[in-house]
Amino acid sequence: MKFLITGGLGFLGSNLSQKVLREKEEIIVLDNFSKINCKNNLKWLKKNGNFKLINQDVRNQKKIDNIIKNIIPDVIFHTAGQTAVTKSIENPRKDFEINVGGTINLLEAIRKYSPQTILVYSSTNKVYGDLKYLSLSEGDMRYHLNNSQDGLDETLKLDLQTPYGCSKGAADQYVLDYASIYGLRTTVFRHSAIYGPRQYPSFDQGWVSWFCLKGLEIKYKIEKDKIKVLGNGKQVRDVLYVEDAVNLYFNAISKIENIKGIPLNIGGGFENSLSILELISFLEKELNIDINYEIDQEREADQKYFVSENKKVKDILDWKPKISFHHGLKKLIIWLESNLKSDI
Prior knowledge:
The chain is an alpha/beta fold and 344 residues long. It has one domain: NAD(P)-binding Rossmann-like Domain (Rossmann fold, 3-Layer(aba) Sandwich). The protein contains twelve helices and 15 strands. The radius of gyration is 19 Å and the shape is globular. It has a seven-stranded parallel beta sheet, sandwiched between helices. Strands 9, 11, 13 and 15 form a four-stranded mixed beta sheet that branches. A two-stranded antiparallel ribbon has the order 6-7. The protein has helices spanning 11-22, 38-46, 61-71, 85-90, 92-113, 162-182, 207-219, 242-254, 256-259, 276-287, 311-317, 325-343, and strands at residues 2-6, 26-31, 52-55, 75-78, 118-124, 136-138, 143-145, 185-191, 193-195, 227-230, 236-241, 263-266, 273-275, 293-296, 305-306. The longest helix is centred in the first third of the chain and has 22 residues, at 92-113. α1 (11-22) links the parallel β1 and β2 (26-31).
């Protein structure tokens, strides 16, 4: 099979690219090198095998048309995008052009030149808004969803808040609509929090990896200031190790007819749910450190609680997470530590 991975040098994209290389399939990696660590991921991927690299931006309609027309990919994993709420607020037009415009360019190119291509779109739980209507109780370390431990399913209403939520939600709906109106083989994964190796975190994105990195910097006496926590730290997400996410994308290929035009909530499930305070506590014990933190204003439209039910994806794709957050976090820490030591 022939794979095209947009954002193929990013966190999820590079892990998907590695899987294709391991499977000895043909791969085209498309990336515009807009993120500072794309070059690191490129060097790493080159160690895994040979592939075609296209330095291009999904916003360039003519180039995307030509790429799809010439390549005719069997599968596209569309992971390219603007992924930070803060950056979307700073520059909503750019956020729109990347997330909506770039996705439309891909869909139109597929519709015109390669209608049999499978497209799996990496969306987000942010399409559901702040979820302030949920019935929650506040514990010492986390929020709890009252009357349920199963998590939240796809019947949640869309509630597009912040430019990022609007752009990802609009792209999400276009992907679904192109399956309905044009019969394209497209589907949407609404992710909670993915973490793991090849994620170079920042304060704006990749919160699990960012706190792990800060913990290591405290351990090696690089970070001496208090760590900033937005909100009270009791916000809960179900975290998913990237290897489990990659396996899901490949599961989708053979069963695309069963999920064509269907959105799926994707996360680690309740057993892998974690609050910021719980992550801090884990890191203190794992790294034998004390983390001093200060509470700051919560993010715009932040969800106090989101845990994916995962029932639908399990029933249709026979998939569930295999790597517990305890094990996954330890693997992530080892990877982050090796990078950190090389810079010391």
